[in-house]
Amino acid sequence: MNATASVVLSGTPYNFAASKVGLSYLSPLVGTLLAALYTGRFSDWFTIRLARRNQGVMEAEQRLWPFLLCVILIPASLILWGVGAAHNIHWFGLLVAMCGLGFINAVGITLSVNYLIDSYYHISGDALSTVMIIRNSMAFGMGYAITPWFENMGFQNCFLVAAFVGMLVAASFLAIVKYGKRLRARSTEAYWKLVDSDVVSSH
């Protein structure tokens, strides 16, 4: 979205001035605020309910179920943005797409970090640093890839592909829900070795 918002909104038929393009980013801000409520109060309430149904035991994978909304909103928002821009829909529709993208971006980051901390609490600082390096490297690469992508395929086809790729990536949380506990159990020995090495190095 960041790479294409200015191209779309400043071009015909919208012809937004630079200041209006900047103001359009209030829309993903609204999405981010809604995501804070969703991943905060609602997510905690929902996780507690799942724990009660699991005989009072909270598993880290229970944190991931709110991702289900992203499986729907990611393709919906990307299709609305890309197909909408290709067919010159009203600018308000594009702002709705931006709001949706702001929402899912914040939800994805927050739920992933929550799961990471619940899974590897004692080394969460190191784990977060590693994840952020990977995430920022991917974002850097996408910044270079998106422009030739939509220039060669057009907005509609580019964002249709992105929508279905995004949906598949979001749906991968289901595999973690099913197999995550087993994977964590396999890494127990390596995990405690890392914790012990951190304790030793800190003294």
From TrEMBL:
What organism is the protein native to? Fusarium oxysporum f. sp. lycopersici (strain 4287 / CBS 123668 / FGSC 9935 / NRRL 34936)
The lineage is: Eukaryota, Fungi, Dikarya, Ascomycota, Pezizomycotina
The record's keywords, sorted A to Z, are: Glycoprotein, Kinase, Membrane, Transferase, Transmembrane, Transmembrane helix
What cellular component GO annotations does this protein have? Answer: plasma membrane
Identification of the protein by name: Serine/threonine kinase 16
Q: What is its main location?
A: membrane
Write down the Gene3D superfamilies for this protein, in alphabetical order: MFS general substrate transporter like domains
Q: How does it sit in the membrane?
A: Multi-pass membrane protein
In which compartments does the protein localize?
A: Membrane
Regions that span the bilayer: 23-43, 64-83, 89-116, 128-147, 159-177
- The reply on keyword Transmembrane helix is yes
Q: Which GO terms describe its molecular function?
A: kinase activity; transmembrane transporter activity
